[in-house]
Amino acid sequence: MSILVLADLHEGQLAGATAHVVAAAQAIIGGDIDVLVAGEGVQAAADAAAKLDGLSRVLVADNAVYAHQLAEPMGALLVELAGDYTHVLASASTTGKNVLPRLAALKEVSQLSDVIAVESADTFLRPIYAGNAIATVKSADDLKVITIRPTGFDAVGNSGSATIEAVEVVVENSHSSFVKEELAKSDRPELGGAKVVISGGRGMGNGENFKLLDGIADKLGAAIGASRAAVDAGYVPNDMQVGQTGKIVAPDLYIAVGISGAIQHLAGMKDSKVIVAINKDDEAPIFQIADYGLVGDLFEILPELESKL
Amino acid sequence: MKILVAVKRVIDYNVKIRVKANHSDVDLTNVKMAMNPFCEIAVEEAVRLKEKGVATEVVAVSIGHKAVQEQLRTALALGADRAIHIETDERAESLAVAKLLAKVVEEEQPSLVILGKQAIDTDNNQTGQMLAALTGLPQGTFASEVAVDGDKVNVTREIDGGLQTISLTLPAIVTTDLRLNEPRYAKLPDIMKAKKKPLDVKTPDDYGVDVASKVSLLKVEYPAERKGGIKVASVDELIDKLKNETKVL
Ligand SMILES: Cc1cc2nc3c(=O)[nH]c(=O)nc-3n(C[C@H](O)[C@H](O)[C@H](O)COP(=O)(O)OP(=O)(O)OC[C@H]3O[C@@H](n4cnc5c(N)ncnc54)[C@H](O)[C@@H]3O)c2cc1C
Ligand SMILES: Nc1ncnc2c1ncn2[C@@H]1O[C@H](COP(=O)(O)O)[C@@H](O)[C@H]1O
User: Fold this and answer.
1) Residue of B19, B137, B160, B249 for testing the chain A interface, max A β-carbons within 10 Å
2) What is the pLDDT of residues B170-228, one digit of tens each?
3) What sign has the CA pseudo-torsion A284, B222, A99, A96?
4) Ligand 1 and A246: CB distance under 6 A
5) ipTM score of the complex?
6) A268 Cβ inside 6 Å of ligand 1
7) What is the pLDDT of residues A268-294, one digit of tens each?
8) B90 close contact with A: CB closer than 8 A
9) Chain-chain contact of A137 with B228 (C-beta, under 8 angstroms)
10) ∠A67-B149-B59 over CA atoms, to 5°?
């Protein structure tokens, strides 16, 4: 058995999720694990990947056709490479979700999405119905195509030294092209990997009020998240949405501010170690899962919390 | 141009699910069902493109047992012109659905196929991408904006880092994200009219597709229950608990 892991990139750099996916691969087999880094100008990402523990090789496909990791060329590249492997894994990031099902379809196999635990080389656990049930699924497909939920696996370390090999496969892509990207710029930790997350919901009232979270986030080294309602209302951009159909987080500390606690929101944060809820409605469902609930007006509580931390 | 929309019947998003006592699956008996919310957004987008004069016909398709006709009628009430039901009592997984949709695409030759990004029951997020791969058509997933321009469509996608815009040559496959639009509700007169709109019933055999999957569902369980916590009376007490009880500060 051998596994290929598609590396997750963020602006050309290796994203933190990859180390979690490699951990998932190690839970599946003791044998060969390779990482594929594909994109344009990705040598630094490849070097970073080579340091991940437990890898045999890092395969690098560095070519303009893979720039921005568009689905069509990425899928075609994976199809070319997959023949040598029993499992192909990627993180359940928007890139992994965009690309991996293409490989599965072209190989005529199923894909297992968002795997959170490994029972054996063919049996896996995955959440369904917004995480309100956990399914154990067994795949009899020759090739297992799997996206991994990074929060399910602790990241591997950084003391490896895998060999780096260039991949010469170049595919064609004439049907899709990149136009532009508007990426959120932030000095804060990445939402998915942050140790502390503080999220605001509709109760924040407007986008300006999200600044009330900044000072606390600074003091705690936290990432800032949001509920769907806050994103839909235009308070904050889409990349901050936590939930069933947004980002999945599992920090040591999650602080939900002015968030009611709909199941779709809980799906994205209920595996956090400690949950704090600040809400003026003492019957808000969020209190049912919060370790510490503080009932009151967030506009009074947040400034006090910031000054006392 | 013709638009094909794929709609899935799923548990209503407000319903709290129950797991069967024998852990074989989630119990769907007597549970309120509805159109998958992302499919509502897909139908809405197609109908808006028709209202704008970009599209001339909207065809809704659903795969599943007889009851999915209810959701197809909803799509017709919302403005789809006709519907195709591919009837099967088997649990059709994303790959099988994508294979069937690929056959429908071959037959109908739509310029645009719109699907939801994710079905909220299996939470798979696969079918649109698989359909794109099988048909060889370009894909624009997780769309928050779709702008048709001649023989191209610009799709703005919600990605982890923010937003990405790509340009696809039509025909193309699009999957919807939450911010694409706000779906309308069906009005009573439209619900009445929808009853008379054409709805074709087919079977997977008609398309020569085997829906059996090699993935078996061994067991379904509730997730580990979170113990309810306590209410604290003040910011000071909260900070004290975080520092001294759970030591996360
Ligand atoms: C298909 C689908 C997918 C979805 N995906 C997601 C998802 O990924 N993530 C997500 O979050 N949601 C998702 N949702 C939406 C979800 O169902 C809820 O609508 C949403 O989470 C509600 O956001 P909220 O808690 O901020 O708003 P509300 O439910 O309106 O709650 C606002 C809360 O703020 C409190 N509040 C108001 N003012 C104050 C104040 N001054 N001080 C203190 N508290 C105050 C109120 O008491 C209330 O509890 C999805 C829904 C669907 C249908
Ligand atoms: N049985 C089905 N019938 C019609 N469309 C479906 C079906 N299953 C999935 N789809 C479409 O594929 C989308 C994504 O589903 P999934 O990949 O299963 O999460 C849905 O929002 C639908 O548009």
Assistant:
1) B160
2) 999 999 999 999 999 999 999 999 999 999 999 999 999 999 999 999 999 999 988 88
3) positive
4) yes
5) 0.97
6) yes
7) 999 999 999 999 999 999 999 999 999
8) no
9) no
10) 100
